[in-house]
Design goal:
- It is a single chain.
- By secondary structure, the chain is an alpha+beta fold.
- 33% of the residues lie in helices and 32% in strands.
- The protein has helices spanning 21-26, 107-118, 129-144, 151-174, and strands at residues 13-16, 29-38, 43-46, 52-59, 62-66, 69-73, 78-82, 87-91, 95-103, 122-123.
- It is globular, with a radius of gyration of 15 Å.
Length: 177
């Protein structure tokens, strides 16, 4: 693995994926995906990037500054960042998380919908086994370096994760079990 930022430990994984023009117009296009193990040196500051970042916290604490909010994400939380806006995050302890950056025509609208539902970028305690399973399916495709025809399947998987987030929040809001 090539180290992108200080504090990313050697057992981390990152894979880059270039979505086709079709995916950018119609689908959710995966840009990169990874599983990171970091120490307290890990800090990221980005002024602008044309993507949405979804971080699934496995262990440790990640402090995030985004859109006028400052919060700490912990195991089981999801952080959703529209990277077109300046953001900063850093490890408060050793941590593990898995994540992906995605883009495409519907991405910003879904991100806005989720922000409206949750009141911000921290989705507390929302990382489920179902989402982990879907993430693992995406990782399996990317690790195998299967052809671009799978960008349609990857788009479906990203959509499934977004759908799960919205359904889980709707259950809480409407009192369903």
């Amino acid at each position: 693995m090539r180290v992108l930022e200080a504090g990313i430990l050697p057992d981390s994984e990152i894979y880059f994926y270039e979505p086709s023009q079709f995916a950018m117009r119609v689908l959710f296009g995966l840009q990169h995906i990874g599983i990171f193990h970091c120490d307290q040196r890990y800090i990221v500051t980005h002024p602008y990037w044309e993507s949405i970042l979804m971080i699934f916290m496995d262990e440790g604490r990640l402090e995030t500054e985004y859109n006028g909010q400052r919060f700490v994400a912990e195991a089981g939380d999801i952080v959703l960042i529209d990277c077109r806006h300046q953001h900063r995050y850093r490890a408060l302890s050793d941590l593990r998380f898995h994540y992906f950056h995605f883009s495409g025509h519907p991405s910003a609208a879904y991100c806005s919908l989720i922000y409206d539902m949750f009141g911000g970028a921290l989705l507390k305690g929302l990382c489920s086994e179902n989402m982990q399973s879907i993430f693992n399916q995406i990782m399996m495709i990317v690790r195998s370096k299967i052809s671009l025809e799978n960008e349609h399947r990857i788009s479906v998987y990203i959509h499934m994760i977004l759908c799960s987030i919205i359904e889980d929040q709707s259950k809480v809001t409407h009192g369903s079990a």
